[in-house]
Amino acid sequence: MKARVLIVDDEPDYLNLLEFNLLGQGFEVISAPNGLEGLRRARCDAPQVIILDLMLPDMDGLSVCQILRSQPGTRDVPVIILSALEPPLKRSRAEKAQFACWLKKGVGFEALIKSVRGVLENGCQARAA
Predict the structure, then answer these.
(1) For site-directed labelling of 71, which of 36, 62, 85, 97 has its Cα 20 to 30 A away?
(2) What is the average per-residue pLDDT within 2-6?
(3) 3-class DSSP state of 42
(4) What is the CATH number of the domain that holds 39?
(5) Residue 129 falls inside a structural domain
(6) What are the tens digits of pLDDT across the range 95-129?
(7) Would you say the pTM of this structure is higher than 0.85?
(8) Residue 12 domain-assigned?
(9) d(Cα 60, Cα 49) in Å, to the nearest integer?
(10) Could you give the number of structural domains in the chain?
(11) CA-CA-CA-CA torsion for 9, 61, 105, 37, nearest 10 degrees?
(12) Helices assigned H by DSSP within the chain
């Protein structure tokens, strides 16, 4: 059975690139262009991992992540932050979001795949900010 990955990103070209590459690695891919749609897809489609941008048009990614953590059906789904932003210096909000790892956009695709496979194996145990 293929692992299901939800990508939440509002940049269509980047979203398509991620989808193409993840499909090529054998993952099932679901996508959402904003935070609200990402939350809906996470509840309806039960992904095994979520790749989440922070700068979304309707709500920021840390808020999306906090909502995911507050709901029984999504609280244990590992979230990989993939953002152009650096990890926050102030960790309190990031710690509440409880993401699995933080990658900066532009990271090599191999590193992203390694992170996806790592969180699929280990769940949300390794948090990083």
Answers:
(1) 85
(2) 96
(3) helix
(4) 3.40.50.2300
(5) no
(6) 666 788 889 998 999 999 999 999 998 865 434 33
(7) yes
(8) yes
(9) 18
(10) 1
(11) -10
(12) 12-24, 35-45, 61-70, 92-97, 109-122
